[in-house]
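Thought: the user wants the 3D structure for the chain below. I'll pass the sequence to the structure tool as-is, report back what it returns, then summarize two notable features.
Action: structure_tool
Action Input:
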Amino acid sequence: MTTDDDRASSAASKGEPTLAYRHATEYRLDPEREHLLLRALSAATPGLTQLRRYRRSWLRPDLFAGIAVAAYLIPQVIAYTVIVNVPPVVGLWTALVALVIYAAMGCSRVLSVGPESTVALMAGAAVASMADGDPNRVMALTAALSLVVAGWCALARMARLGWIAELLSQPLLVGYLAGAALLMIVGQLGNMTGTSVHGHSIVAQLQAFAGVVTGTHWVTFAIAVGTLVLLLSVRKLLPKWPAPLIAVATATVVCAVAGLDQYGVAVVGHVPTGLPVPQLPAVSWEDLQLLILAGLGVAVVAYGDNTLIARGFPADTDPDEGRDELDPQQELVALSGVHVAVGLFSGFPVSSSGSRTALALAAGARTQVYSLTSAACVVAVLFVAGPLFAQLPKAALGAVVLYAAGKLVSWKEFRRLARFRKTELGLALAGALGTVLFGILIGVGVAIALSLLEMAQRLARPHEGVLGRVPGLPGMHDVADYPDAQTLPGLVIYRYDAPLFFANVGDLCRRALLVVKQENEASPEQPVRWFVLNVEANVEVDITAADGLQQLYEDLAERGVRLGLARVKTDLRLPLGRAGLTDLIGEDMLFPTLPVVEEAYLAWATANPLPPQPADTGTGTEELDGPRPADDRGDHPDGGTEPRPHGGAGAEPAAPGQVRTPSDVRPDH
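Observation:
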């Protein structure tokens, strides 16, 4: 009996290739299924997934970056509590919770999430009229507002509305931030002058300040000015040093040594230590109803800040790791989780800080471990350094807020918008004015409404053009851009650069008929016979637009003009077919490219020549309007009017003496 080994030996002796058997692979065809809760937890915490791939070489730069950010963050968030009108310790609680939760749930490796000036101002404005100046009431309402923001973010994630942050265009964002900066500055006039300024609008606050400005406490004002000057000087001369910490610490030491609180300088006073117990805020259902709309505005701005800053400051990843991509939908989940935790720990709504994120990158941060390091520093302050803030002057905090407000105003951006287009500058100024006059919450709505109106205006009245050939330049181009552009007599190829929908189809029809009229007036001896719409940019159509195209077909037919479509994509062809337009227009008038349009028209024009023009007899009875546009009928040999074939790309070429293809007609590019 011959074995496998004998056959292998025989094959080897004859010089034939052989393969030796090996041990069979252990196949696992049934994949191990992870528990549903574990999969959900993994999807909701991409930050923890990143930390599982953490490298030891990243620890040192992350630690140093975390300490640097903490030195900048601690005085900054305490200053923002003045905007919200809550105790300073609430800012530390809020920052601690936001840093830890985002490190676990966020996508960005370096985004610094926590209290931020604009969102703090929105939160303070939203609850001011409901709290009547009671700090405990403000704490409860801002915590409830955080939970409302979390709910809006969760709803947006379920509806996959990650694009909502893009509703704020750049000009309106610039103007909105400038308006918010002005509101912040006016809101700190009382703290910086030692006077009492009240009012829920900027006009009311300015009127109140005008009545008490003569009673300015000059020592308080000197502290505010000195703190601001020191902050700006350190920032200018030593940009890598924590300027806010140095300025605030100096003001605190001066106030404590000189005993300025005994001379009427307002100080922070007792700061509690430790952490609060998680609890639901003590608010009523009526309070929550009043906070729903404000929470929507805060959610839009906070999410917009997160996505814009995260995209503007991508993490420095290694080449083999690929780019650090931001998932807009996951950012909604992260922002929702952060605000749930903030609300339970009596905090106020948060966003992200561009300055802290830039500082972290400059210090070499690689992952969110730097945020956890900053959180550890905040814990140390909460348990150890609380008494040190007792002599912190409120005027110094007002100076820090003034400094932060100044960074929101970008004169460079205003100048850039003015150079680009005056309308862009007008939108920015409108956003700023709406924010200043109507408040931060309504200002957000005004900014979004203006963005949508601008977008609608551009779609309703888009760019258009008649296409032709340019000698020496491949392809077809807008004839308005080239003085030497050429077109075929009787053929108009027209492009409308927008999706077709109810708001612009009427404009398309008006412009198309106007083009035909002007073409006929310019060349009465060669009237328009084909009007081909290049629908390359018309990727969508609604039923109103389909009806409008049908009306255009009929209007052109009354003028003896055939309607065609070129470069029809499948996404557009299907709804046009369902609307009956492809059958109405005819398959022979649907063209894949523009050169095919020209070839088909030349063949058709050869087969359907214009009738001869009447001779000028001088009797005054000739037609003054030029020749009647030819329809699709020719002379039948027996005198009838049977329609001729339309021809197409495969029709016979033009005969001598008739319309010919220009020498520069070439494939479309």
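Final Answer: Structure generated. Confidence is low (pLDDT under 50) at residues 618-669. The first strand starts at residue 113 and ends at 114.
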